[in-house]
Amino acid sequence: MEPEAEIKNSIKNWAVGDRPREKLAAKGVNALSDAELIAILLGSGTREGSALDVARRMMQKIDNDLLALGKLSVKDLMKEKGIGQARAIIIVAAIELGRRRRRFETEQKKNITSSKDVAEIFMSRIGDLPHEQFWLLLLNRANKVIGQELISSGGIAGTVVDTRIIFKKAIESLASSIILCHNHPSGNLKPSEADLSLTNRLKEAGKLLEIPVLDHIIVTDSSSFSFADEGLI
Fold first, then answer.
1. CA-CA distance, 135 to 209, in Å (whole number)?
2. Which residue of 56, 168, 183, 213 has the fewest C-beta atoms within 10 A of its own C-beta?
3. What does pTM read for this prediction?
């Protein structure tokens, strides 16, 4: 590309009101599109286009879906021309900060009163993961959260769960009851036969140890399924 064309592509040569950083400073963060926010993270473009061009091209490839963006790894992002490792890491870090902020907000409500309360906690934690994770929520007698434990992390189709580990965690924490939660990367909320069998096994073990299993929640990035609400526990 000729130097003249390269200069033309630079955001620095745009009208001040159109530059993402200046636009944010003047009008606030809500005035910017998703691509403009990403362009700020990228910092600069390539010989073929500005940072905003790179950001728009990347977002178009995922149908402008921010949930899909949240599932991309550093390696995935680096497949886009104009995004090297350093820029990919910045994007992943920014997304993780947003995820943690959302989780922090939901976890401030420590008292569990419904399946929705649990779903809010774990949708922000594991809802958009590309692989399955199984978590344990530990509660006291007042149904207040006293701990969250990652039990296992597996692949796209499932993860191994050890009953002994779950109740060891519960006993060590002096939990009065527990709630189970795992995600379905496929987006399908329907519990599998393995999910049903595991839940029943853990429910029976909980009865013997006097640590009842109150619910088992399946989450995706935008919805949830409660065994208790559906009469399956």
1. 19
2. 168
3. 0.62
Query: Nearest Cα to 232, choosing from 191, 194, 172, 176?
Result: 191
Those residues with Cβ within 8 angstroms of residue 34's Cβ, 6 or more apart along the chain or in another chain: 59, 64, 66
Q: Which residue, among 201, 138, 199, 198, has the nearest Cα to 171 in the 3D structure?
A: 138
Contact between 132 and 144 under an 8 Å Cβ cutoff? The reply is no
> Tokens 């530990």 identify what position?
138
Please give the chain's pLDDT, 233 residues, in tens. Answer: 444 444 445 666 665 556 888 999 988 988 999 999 999 999 888 888 889 999 999 999 999 988 889 888 999 999 999 999 999 999 999 988 888 877 766 565 568 999 999 998 898 889 888 899 999 999 999 999 999 999 999 876 668 899 999 999 999 999 999 999 999 998 999 999 999 999 999 999 999 999 999 999 999 988 999 999 999 98
Alpha-carbon distance 111 to 170, whole Å? 18
Q: Answer yes or no: are the C-beta atoms of 130 and 145 closer than 8 Å.
A: no
Within 10 A of 215 (CB to CB), how many other CB atoms are there?
23
Q: Are 140 and 176 in contact (CB under 8 A)?
A: yes
The distance from CA 222 to its chain's CA centroid, rounded to whole angstroms, is: 10
Helical spans, DSSP H, in 19-176: 20-27, 34-42, 51-61, 66-69, 74-77, 85-107, 115-126, 163-172
b vs e for 107-133, b when ≥16 Cβ sit within 10 Å of the residue's Cβ?
eeeeebeebebbbbbbbbbbbbbeebb
